[in-house]
C-alpha cells in the first residue's frame, strides 16, 4: 500500500543525506498515484496533493526519523478533515412533515436506501411515509411497495400512469391527513445531462420544499463522480450524500470527489442489500479505506 | 492537446489527464502515454493532432484484438448467462437482448434467475412482455440453480433457439454469493454440456478501478466470455475496459446506451477510442 511505497521512497532519498523539499515533492507522486488508484477525481487529487505538500515540506516531515509515517499521518488527517465531521442526522422541519428527496443515477441504490432510511426513522419512533415517484422503471413501484411491506411502513403510490409531480402532491396531502412526520420520496434514476429529467426533479423540489435533497452515489463510481455531483448540485441543489455498496472492496475515492465538488456532507453509507444495512458516515474510517 | 501545437512535456501531461478522467487507470495511462511519447520521438512526429491520432490507434488496436461477436451453439439451444454487481444493468440488458434476438427471428426464452431482490421477477416479466418472449420463473426465495435447471429443461423441450438467464446482482467479494453463481453455472453445464455458450459480465460505465476486480473474480468463478458496458449514454467513458482487455483478454461485446428496449449496440473499438477523446 501507500505506507510501504512511501517508506521505500524515503529510504532511498534519505540515503543521499538530509531530506529536502524536492524529496518531498517526489513522495507526493506516490500519494497522487494512491489516490488516483482509489478513484479520487484527478482534479481533486491535484488540489489535495498541493495542500498536503504545503504541510509536508515542514520540519514535521523533513526532521522526522520516520518521514513516510509522517506523510501518511498528514494525508490521513487532511482526508478526514476534508470529508467533514460525522453528520448522520436528517434535518427535521420546523413543522411536520419533513420531506426528504432521494436522487441520483440509475442503479445507485435509491429505492433500497429510501427503504433503509424509512426503517431507521421508524426505529427512532417516527412515522415515515414512502412515496413511489418512479413511473419509468419496470416494477419500480412494486419494488418500493415490497420494501414498505417488509418494513411495515406505508407506501403512497398512484401507479405509473400519473406524473411524478402529481404523485408527490397526492403524497403530501395523504401524509398530512395520516399524521406522517417524514415523507421520503423515491425518484427514478436519471442522467445529470438529461435536462427534461433534471427539470422533473426541480419541479418536485419546488412543490414539496424538501428539508433534505440527498444524492445517492455508488461507492465504486470512478472519475465521473464529480460531473454527476456537480451537475445535480447546480441544477437542483443538494443537502447531503449517501454512499452505497460500501460492503464491497472498492476504495471509494468518489467520497472525496463528491465532497470536494459540492461541499455537502456524506450522511450515511449503505453496507449491504438488506434493509437494515445503513450506517452513519465516519470520515476517518473512509480516509483509511481510501488510502488502502 | 486540441490544437495543432508542438508536443512537449506539458502536452503529454495533458494527454495523460484525458486518459485518467476516462477511468483508464494510472498504470494503463502511464503505459499508453510512454508508448506514444517513444513512438512520436522515433517516428519524428511533432504535431499534437498527429500524436493524438496515434494514441487513438494504440487504444483501438488493444480493444479490437479479437472483437468477438456473440457465440452461438453449433446447433440447437444457445444458453446465455448474465452476471455482475448490483444495479449494473443486467435485467434491462436481457430485455434488450431478448428483443434483438426475437427481431432476428429466433425463438427466445427468459429465465428469472434473481429470486432474491424485491420485484426482480416482475421487472423481468415486464421486459418479457415488451419483447414478446416467455419468462420461466419460480417463487421469490427459490433456489436460483433450480430456476436455471428448470429453464434449460423447458427451453430444450420447447425447441427454443436461445435462453437468457438473469441472475441477482452480487458484489464479487461476497464468497457465498460467488459460490451461488458457480452452482448456477455448474447446473447449466450439467444439463447441456456445451452451455452456457455466453457468460456476459455487465459493467456500469461509471465504475472506476473496482471494475478490474469485478472482471477478475467473475471470470475466475464462471468463465466470463464477454462484457456488456452499460450507461455509456452518460458522461462516463468506461476506460477501465482497456486495462481489462490487456490483463484478462476479455472483450467488450455490447454497449448499453439508454433505458429503452432498442438501446443496445455492438461494441465498436474505433468509435470507443474516438469518444474517449471528445
Ligand atoms: N451490496 C449492496 N447492494 C446494494 C446496496 N444498496 C443497494 N444495493 C443493491 O443495488 C441494486 C440497485 O438498487 P436500487 O435500490 O434498485 O437502485 P436504484 O437507484 O433505485 O435504481 P434505479 O431506480 O433503477 O435508478 C439492488 O440490487 C440493491 O439490492 C448496498 O449498500 N450494498
Ligand atoms: N442510462 C442508462 N440506464 C441504464 C442502462 N442500462 C440499464 N440502465 C438502468 O439502470 C438501472 C438498473 O438496471 P437493472 O437492469 O435493474 O440492473 P441490474 O443489474 O439488473 O440490477 P440488480 O438486479 O438489482 O443487480 C435501471 O434504472 C435501468 O433502466 C443504460 O445503458 N443506460
Ligand atoms: Mg429505484
Ligand atoms: Mg436485475
Jot down its keywords.
heterodimer; A: 292 residues; alpha/beta; 8-stranded mixed beta sheet; B: 278 residues; 10 helices; 8 strands; binds magnesium ion
What does this structure look like?
The complex is a heterodimer of chains A (about 290) and B (about 280). Chain A is α/β, with parallel strands linked by helices and about 290 residues long. Chain A has twelve helices and eight strands. Chain A has an eight-stranded mixed sheet with strand order 3-2-4-1-5-6-7-8, with helices on both faces. The longest helix of chain A is centred in the N-terminal third of the chain and has 17 residues, at about 20-35. The model of chain A has no long low-confidence stretch (mean pLDDT about 95). Chain B has an eight-stranded mixed sheet with strand order 3-2-4-1-5-6-7-8, sandwiched between helices. In chain B, α9 (about 240-250) links the parallel β6 and β7. In chain B, α1 (about 10-20) packs antiparallel against α2 and α8 runs parallel beside α9 (about 240-250). In chain B, about 50% of the residues are buried. The model of chain B has no long low-confidence stretch (mean pLDDT about 95). The interface of A and B includes residues 108, 192 and 247 of A. One guanosine-5'-triphosphate sits at the interface of chains A and B.
Quick take:
The complex is a heterodimer of chains A (292) and B (278). Chain A has 292 residues and is α/β, with parallel strands linked by helices. Helices cover 51% and strands 13% of the residues of chain A.
Percentage of residues in strands of chain A: 5-15%
Unreliable spans of chain B are none
Work out the number of β strands of chain A.
8
Indicate the overall shape of chain B: elongated
Query: Reading side by side through the largest sheet of chain B, how are the strands ordered?
Result: 3-2-4-1-5-6-7-8
Spell out the helices and strands of chain B N to C: HHHEHEHEHEHEHEHEEH
Q: What is the mean pLDDT of chain B?
A: 95
Total of helices of chain B? 10
Q: Note the gap between the termini of chain B.
A: 11 Å
Beta fraction of chain B: 5-15%
Order of helices and strands of chain A: HHHHHEHEHEHEHEHEHEEH
The oligomerization state is heterodimer
Q: Which chain pair has the greatest contact? A: A-B, 43 and 42 residues
Helix percentage of chain A:
40-55%
Q: Strand count, sense and closure of the main sheet of chain B?
A: 8 strands, mixed
Q: What's the tally of helices of chain A? A: 12
- Mind telling me the C-alpha Rg of chain A? 22 Å
Task: Please tell me the overall pLDDT of chain A.
Answer: 95
The rounded Rg of chain B comes to 21 Å
Beginning-to-end CA distance, first to last residue of chain A: 6 Å
Unreliable stretches of chain A (pLDDT < 50, length at least 5) are none
Amino acid at each position: 500500500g501507500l505506507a510501504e511505497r512511501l517508506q521505500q521512497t524515503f529510504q532511498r532519498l534519505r540515503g543521499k543525506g538530509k531530506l529536502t523539499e524536492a524529496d518531498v515533492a517526489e513522495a507526493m507522486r506516490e500519494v497522487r498515484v494512491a489516490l488516483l488508484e482509489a478513484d479520487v477525481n484527478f482534479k481533486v487529487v491535484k488540489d489535495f496533493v498541493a495542500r498536503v505538500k504545503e504541510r509536508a515540506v515542514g520540519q514535521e516531515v523533513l526532521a522526522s526519523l520516520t518521514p513516510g509515517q509522517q506523510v501518511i499521518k498528514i494525508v490521513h488527517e487532511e482526508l478526514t478533515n476534508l470529508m467533514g465531521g460525522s453528520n448522520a442526522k436528517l434535518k427535521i422541519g420546523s413543522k411536520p412533515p419533513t420531506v426528504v428527496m432521494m436522487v441520483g443515477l440509475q442503479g445507485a441504490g435509491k429505492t433500497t436506501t429510501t427503504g433503509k432510511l424509512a426503517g431507521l426513522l421508524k426505529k427512532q419512533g417516527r412515522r415515515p411515509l414512502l412515496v413511489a415517484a418512479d413511473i419509468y422503471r419496470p416494477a419500480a413501484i412494486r419494488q418500493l411497495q415490497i420494501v414498505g411491506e417488509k418494513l411495515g411502513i406505508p407506501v403512497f403510490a398512484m401507479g405509473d400512469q400519473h406524473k411524478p409531480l402529481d404523485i408527490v402532491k397526492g403524497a403530501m396531502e395523504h401524509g398530512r391527513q395520516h399524521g406522517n412526520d417524514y415523507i421520503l420520496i423515491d425518484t427514478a434514476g436519471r442522467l445529470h445531462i438529461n435536462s427534461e429529467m433534471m427539470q422533473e426533479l426541480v419541479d418536485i423540489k419546488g412543490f414539496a420544499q424538501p428539508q433534505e435533497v440527498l444524492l445517492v452515489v455508488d461507492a465504486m463510481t470512478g472519475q465521473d463522480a464529480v460531473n454527476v455531483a456537480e451537475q445535480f448540485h447546480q441544477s437542483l441543489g443538494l443537502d447531503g450524500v449517501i454512499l452505497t455498496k460500501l460492503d464491497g472492496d472498492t476504495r471509494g475515492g468518489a467520497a472525496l470527489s463528491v465532497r470536494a465538488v459540492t461541499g455537502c456532507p456524506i450522511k450515511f453509507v449503505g453496507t449491504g442489500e438488506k434493509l437494515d444495512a445503513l450506517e452513519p458516515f465516519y470520515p476517518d474510517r473512509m480516509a483509511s479505506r481510501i488510502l488502502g | 492537446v486540441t490544437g495543432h501545437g508542438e508536443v512537449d512535456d506539458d502536452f503529454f501531461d495533458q494527454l495523460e489527464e484525458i486518459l485518467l478522467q476516462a477511468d483508464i487507470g494510472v498504470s494503463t495511462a502511464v503505459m499508453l502515454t510512454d508508448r506514444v511519447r517513444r513512438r512520436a520521438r522515433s517516428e519524428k512526429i511533432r504535431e499534437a493532432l498527429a500524436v493524438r491520432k496515434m494514441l487513438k490507434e494504440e487504444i483501438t488496436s488493444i480493444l479490437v484484438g479479437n472483437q468477438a461477436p456473440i457465440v452461438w451453439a453449433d446447433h440447437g439451444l444457445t444458453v446465455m448467462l448474465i452476471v455482475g454487481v448490483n444495479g449494473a444493468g443486467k435485467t434491462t440488458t436481457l430485455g434488450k437482448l431478448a428483443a434483438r434476438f426475437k427481431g432476428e427471428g429466433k425463438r427466445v426464452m427468459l429465465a428469472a434467475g434473481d429470486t432474491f431482490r424485491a420485484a426482480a421477477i416482475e421487472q423481468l416479466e415486464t421486459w418479457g412482455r415488451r419483447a414478446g418472449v416467455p419468462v420461466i420463473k419460480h417463487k421469490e426465495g427459490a433456489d436460483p440453480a433450480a430456476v436455471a435447471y428448470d429453464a434449460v429443461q423447458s427451453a430444450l423441450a420447447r425447441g427454443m433457439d436461445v435462453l437468457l438467464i438473469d441472475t441477482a446482482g452480487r458484489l464479487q467479494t461476497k464468497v457465498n454469493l460467488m459460490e451461488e453463481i458457480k452452482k448456477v453455472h455448474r447446473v447449466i453445464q450439467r444439463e447441456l454440456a456445451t452451455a452456457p455458450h455466453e457468460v456476459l459480465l455487465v459493467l456500469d460505465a461509471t465504475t472506476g478501478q473496482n471494475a478490474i476486480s469485478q472482471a477478475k473474480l467473475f471470470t475466475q468463478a464462471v468463465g466470463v466470455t464477454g462484457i456488456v458496458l452499460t450507461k455509456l449514454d452518460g458522461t462516463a467513458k468506461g476506460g477501465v475496459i482497456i486495462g481489462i482487455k490487456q490483463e484478462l483478454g476479455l472483450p467488450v461485446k455490447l454497449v448499453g446506451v439508454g433505458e429503452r428496449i432498442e438501446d443496445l449496440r455492438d461494441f465498436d473499438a474505433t468509435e470507443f477510442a474516438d469518444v474517449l477523446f471528445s
